[in-house]
Amino acid sequence: MNGLDQLYRDILMDHYKYPRGKKKIENPDIINSGQNPLCGDSIELTARLAGDRIEDIGIETVGCAICTASASMLTETVKGMTLGEVEQLSGLVTKMLTGDDEQKDFDLGDLEALAGVKKFPVRVKCALLAWITLVEGIRAHQEGINPEAVTTE
Questions:
Q1: What is the pTM of this model?
Q2: Which ranges of the chain have pLDDT less than 70?
Q3: Cβ–Cβ contacts within 10 Å for residue 118, how many?
């Protein structure tokens, strides 16, 4: 394993062992749950907005190391971003994990630690579950759908 691979592995394991954003937000504007039946991952996501920005976000996960680490990284990264910025970033993360090189012009910071997951196609959904859950929660919020009624699979 080269030095960069080891660094990425260390980042992922740190987020798995000590997940950030592991909480439920009171009076959230966005609520969504996501499940990955193939791996058994389950996510409950809540977020409070200040205008068009994510003021606070919490994700409670039950799942594998990749799912938990990705959700932890998401909570650190998107806090303070606009909803549009979050959707754009989610698209870049998705492209990175599905092998599209288009995102290489963007510095994704620690999120690049997730890039190695694309070597294991069956685990890509584990890494993307939090991102998909958040984006679908944002879209439901924008469409005025009752946040309690949204579930992602």
A1: 0.89
A2: 1-4, 100-106, 146-153
A3: 15
Rounded distance, CA 53 to CA 74, Å?
Answer: 15
Query: Hey, how many other C-beta atoms are within 10 angstroms of the C-beta on 105?
Result: 7
In this structure, what are the phi and psi dihedrals at residue 34, rounded to the nearest 5 degrees? -135, 145
pLDDT reported for residue 42: 95
Number of Cβ atoms within 10 Å of the Cβ of 31? 20
**Euclidean distance between CA atoms 57 and 65, whole angstroms:** 20
68 backbone dihedrals φ, ψ, rounded to 5°: -65, -45
What pLDDT score does 145 carry?
79
- Tokens standing for residue 72: 């932890």
DSSP element (H, E) containing 41: strand 41-50
| Per-residue tokens: 55 | 């003021």
The pair of structure tokens assigned to 140 is: 């439901």
CA distance 32 to 67: 16
Task: Give the pLDDT of residue 110.
Answer: 85
